[in-house]
Amino acid sequence: MTTKIEQSIETARKLVADDKGLLAMDESNPTCNKRFAKYGIPQTVEARRAYRELIITTPGLNQCISGVILYDETIRQQKKSGTPFIRVIEQAEIVPGIKVDIGAKSLAGHPGEKITEGLDGLRDRLKEYFDMGARFAKWRAVITPGDGIPSRACIAANAQALARYAALCQEAGVTPVVEPEVLMEGDHTLARCGELTEELLRAVFIELHAQGVTLEGMILKANMVLPGLACPQQEDVDKVAEATVKCLMRAVPAAVPGVAFLSGGQSCELASARLNAMNIRSKGTRPWPLAFSFARAIQQPALEIWKGEDSEVAAAQDALLHRAMCNRAARRGEYTPAMEETFVTQHA
Ligand code: 13P
To answer: Does any ligand 1 atom lie closer than 6 A to the CB of residue 97?
Structure first.
């Protein structure tokens, strides 16, 4: 019989196989509503359900997407026809995953800093999600670069919470996607982001070891090393690729089966171009595949086309698939900006 640990190792491998990546569609209700508000989409359970149905029924999605990350509301929803979402995902041979943290809250005594919550009762919730069909999970910690922050306390508390979450996941046979994110908001330089990301990753792997997490049975979801959005100096794609690969090589153990980047607010095209450059630059030298686990950088164009209209579903699905295909090409080092120009939705 397969043990829980073997199960988490097997799923981790599956998630990064065949140059595919993850699609994060686990926006909490407030975040999803915020994205909907921008396009005048009703902020209702039904609109969120319809949007998620659009995503998971995209024809051909499984050519590029190995796993999708759901939210607690979504994992319990069904297609309009009544088929549970989780069955639709399994039938497409995509692995269902679930966000299990309950959000980043203010860290006591540390103004401007956050600690991710959700450990209480997590063992029971993981069991419930596993019984529903989820085979991997996600927990996101956020680190804000700023004046005098992050503090050591913030890094330590978040690293420990990530490690405790990961250990509980593996106990349940669920592969943990461990996501420590240095935010893009701010005017910090690329070099500062690199220093912070390295420090954070080192702290996380020390805690993962302390909590007895099997590295072969997890995925690291990392930020790319980027200059802050408000930093006057914005390095080119190659500089970003160089800094990111250098940082990961220093801090991520070779036993980790894969690194999947978050997009963090980059444009879709830049996220693909940077992933592509990293894959070209480090081919044959890095120990882990460099994949993607994007939310905005896959969904954004589709949401903009859909805007809540039934008549736009097929065109929105084309746009979603296009982004997923660009990112699969980027994993192979085969993405070119020309791919963007040649894309025309068949349903426009
Ligand atoms: P973005 O790709 O939009 O940053 O989202 C990834 C994610 O899942 C954040 O937790």
So the answer is: no
Checking DSSP bridges between strand 114-116 and strand 104-106, what pairing results, if any? antiparallel
Each domain of the chain, given as residue ranges in start order, spans 4-346
Catalytic residue among 138, 221, 242, 312: 221
Q: Residues 158, 115: contact at Cβ < 8 Å?
A: yes
Atom number, ligand 1, closest to the C-alpha of residue 26:
8
The answer, yes or no, to whether any atom of ligand 1 lies below 6 A from the CB of 262, is: yes
Torsion of CA 31, 33, 38, 44, to 10 degrees: 170
| CATH architecture observed for domain 4-346 | Alpha-Beta Barrel (3.20)
What does the pLDDT look like over 53-94, one tens digit per residue? 999 999 999 999 999 999 999 999 999 999 999 999 999 999
DSSP string for residues in 235-275: --HHHHHHHHHHHHHHHS-TT---EEE--TT--HHHHHHHH
Q: What angle do CA 169, 63, 295 make, to 5 degrees?
A: 55
Instruction: Please check the confidence at residue 348 and state whether its pLDDT lies above 60.
Output: no
